[in-house]
Design a protein that fits this description.
about 100 residues; mainly alpha; transferase; DsrC-like_C; DsrC-like_dom_sf; sulfur carrier activity; globular
Length: about 100
Amino acid sequence: MTVATIAGTPVHVDAEGFLTEYGEWSEDLGRGLAARIGIELSDAHWRAIRFLREDFRAQGQTATLRRVSTLAGIPIKEMFALFPGKPAKKMAYVAGLPKPHGCV
């Protein structure tokens, strides 16, 4: 496992830069991760990120876009606007979670 320093915090990451230790994440670290991919977090971003973290703790895996849309009430179109390009992958990255199954 690799240790990287992100936003001044040493964290364990996989080969793609996703955090591997749930407990190492903090909101400050989330801001730093978002900045690394060019996203400035708003309240709408935090709503998705907090849902993902809570759902991961309960389910043990990173939620899909469909699950976030259905359970958190965030339309898929909005997630694409908040996290352009690959929203599932970007949301998981900022939330400090593993890449969702099926993401390349």
